[in-house]
Design goal:
It is built from 11 helices and 2 strands; from the N terminus they run ααααααββααααα. It is mainly α and about 210 residues long.
Length: about 210
């Protein structure tokens, strides 16, 4: 009787090594490797576990343990201060790029200036679209909202309304005006643009400490 394993191919040593190298080159193995932070955290955990074990604790003494603990806490606080401080610069970098479905690297000031130029030319459609983009960009630059990628005008208005509760109705009107012009093809008017521009100006000059809780 012929075994079903008779046709099984068994590689030689070189072939098996090559197969293993090809398999280990797969990116999923690299992704599974611990990061430098994981390794440092593991070493710190082991150090603390050894330090505060009953044997070492008795040998070092309570005063030394307190000093070591204070040093570790101080180091953690310093790390938070150092790595937590660039929050605003991260927000600015995150604010650049995709904005309301389009790739746009203009700052809020640039978008505001371009919208005003379009308004002076009587192009209310472009002026309205750009002015709402200026509102969204300004909120991102100030790190007041953190929308998900591909966020819509309505979702940005909701997030901003949670920060500026008294401006929520105006923000909803602005988002509706943007959607009407951008996606529904409805023509904007000077009144619509002026209402949106006034909302932008109020938000732009609003001090953070004056934002309602």
């Amino acid at each position: 009787m012929i075994s079903r394993f008779d046709d099984l191919f068994i590689p030689d040593g070189d072939e098996a090594r090559r197969w293993a190298e090809d398999e280990l080159a797969n990116p999923r193995y690299a992704d599974a490797k611990p990061t430098w932070f994981d390794l440092v955290a593991r070493d710190i955990g082991r150090f603390l576990a050894d330090l505060f074990s009953s044997d070492n604790g008795a040998n070092i003494g309570p005063s030394a343990l307190i000093i070591v603990t204070v040093v570790i806490v101080a180091a953690l606080i310093a790390a938070l201060v150092i790595w937590g401080r660039p929050r605003s610069s991260r927000a600015v970098r995150r604010a650049r790029g995709d904005l309301l479905g389009e790739s746009d690297d203009r700052t809020a000031a640039q978008l505001r200036s371009d919208s005003e130029r379009s308004a002076r030319a009587g192009d209310w459609n472009t002026a309205t679209i750009l002015r709402y983009r200026a509102i969204a960009r300004s909120l991102l630059e100030r790190d007041l909202i953190d929308p998900a990628p591909g966020a819509t005008a309505q979702s940005i208005a909701r997030d901003a309304g949670a920060v500026f509760a008294d401006e929520a109705p105006a923000l909803r009107r602005a988002a509706v005006a943007f959607d009407d012009v951008r996606y529904l093809g409805r023509p904007a008017t000077e009144e619509i643009y002026q209402d949106l521009a006034a909302t932008d100006e109020r938000l732009r000059t609003r001090r953070l400490e004056a934002v309602p809780a």
